[in-house]
């Protein structure tokens, strides 16, 4: 009997030595099972991200890794337990991975954190959605510049008409979508020059380079739109994509080469070298932290799965005369009649994504044209033309909480953050522009959808 107990204790101790492998397995399960529909494994982004992590990551091997990432991961794990938003789960998982890496290699620098943020779907979502006003401004600027040459140019929303040809500035084009690629390239260059010259930059210096990169990218896109229109390079052609790549290289990557080199050489601090090397000796506390965190992530994910907001369906939805009302997963209400299709998409909090129509309708195979801000019913909203082959629809959307209607992402998020009633995204679609205008005017004037907000 005692021999069997002794063998069991020895087996447990031997298994305890494998805790890094157990931890990696747990994190793998969270990433593959819990976040498989959240993470977008884009090949180019993964390759650039891996390269950026390789060049950007450095360790103070003389200093023991702290528990800072453990407590950050724990905080977001608790937030995910309260509010099942996949963003919280993703941040907790990434911070847990950083904590485990610091356990073995020493204190890590801040650049890999920035790279990981850039690789998340939230960063790309923010680039696509919050850059939308920039795309509209770029269209207007490009139209004004081309008009100086004497060509007949018309601008409507994100559409430019020149000599009978139409060009659109939208996320589907190789333009502002390159923001993530340019950001990762900037991090690769910063990391490379830091390794080359044995110097490190402070946070504000890195942010200065990234800010300059954003301005370069905007200027590059302006020039790209002008080239496409002036040389009549139509969407869907190889030259359309090649033009985007050439502009990215000439007006973003090459200037970043010189800017990053200059800032690192002139303002970088010499990298301190240490003879003493951190060696992991007593691993009991760290092993317990490293095993408990991913295990907690997995358990909380299993607990939260039944109440995943993406699967929630509202009950007891009020009826509305003249409409067929249906509740859909994701806290979405659909109202439909012979001429209108209305989606009301509830947004639980200010930090949630918003079921943006430019994402949802594209998933249904429609392309967006003539996207612009308009005044309807006394409020500013977005309108667009949806087209799928010969099928055309006219759509409008705005954010509404029953008291305030706005087209501004920043306004509704700030209102909710400061205690306002949660907003919903209202999307109205009709088969003609006249029907859409009449419907939107009536909805905004009579506040007929307030019962659902």
UniProtKB/TrEMBL annotation:
Transmembrane spans: 12-32, 69-101, 107-125, 174-194, 206-236, 242-265, 286-303
Subcellular location: Cell membrane
UniProt keywords, alphabetically: Cell membrane, Hydrolase, Membrane, Protease, Transmembrane, Transmembrane helix
Membrane protein topology class: Multi-pass membrane protein
Entry keyword Transmembrane helix: yes
Top-rank lineage group of the source organism: Bacteria
First-level EC class: hydrolase
GO MF terms held by the record: hydrolase activity
InterPro entries on file: Exo/Archaeosortase_dom, Exosort_XrtN, Exosortase
UniProt EC number: 3.4.22.-
Protein name as catalogued: Exosortase N
